Amino acid sequence: MNNADHYRVRVSAAVLRPRDELLLVRESRLAVAIINLPGGAPQIGETLERAVVREVLEETGYQINPTEIAFVAERRKDRWSASFLEICFYAEIVSDERAAPKAHDSIYSVEWLPLDHPDIRSQMPHIELFSTRRRGHYIDAVSETVS
């Protein structure tokens, strides 16, 4: 088994409203409550853009249009265990109409929260990217370095 067998890709969306509110999901991961950008894993043969549109629709009920890449983040456990690559797109809501989200065992709410909300600040150290609308950055999540 080679290291590529343990590399996972995740797409996510940073959907912002004019009042600097960010679309987020509250979910449970391994019995721990977390706040997260909506997103997930691309399916085989699916482009990253199509994957983020599908994932956001499934998780939040919103139809989005990805506009540009906000960041790429790499999270490495260690050399031989799972590593994750997250590609986050800035996105716009296509319509104010919201479909019913697909039922997820882990997601228990969909919320719009201000960027300075304490839950966001404590769980998403790279949140400053969104307040300044910075884009195209690489994040080394081990050191939380943004370049």
Brief sketch in words of this structure:
This protein is an alpha+beta fold. The chain is 16% helix and 44% strand. The protein has helices at 48-60, 118-123, 128-131; strands at 7-17, 21-29, 32-36, 39-40, 64-76, 83-93, 107-114, 137-140, 145-146.
Folded structure, characterized:
There is one protein chain. This protein has 147 residues and is α+β, with helices and mostly antiparallel strands. Helices cover 16% and strands 44% of the residues. It starts with 6 loop residues before the first strand and ends with a strand. The mean pLDDT is 82. The chain has one domain: Nucleoside Triphosphate Pyrophosphohydrolase, CATH 3.90.79.10. The chain has helices spanning 48-60, 118-123, 128-131; strands at 7-17, 21-29, 32-36, 39-40, 64-76, 83-93, 107-114, 137-140, 145-146. Strand 8 (137-140) and strand 9 form a beta hairpin. Strands 1, 2, 3, 4, 5, 6, 7, 8 and 9 form a 9-stranded mixed β-sheet that branches.
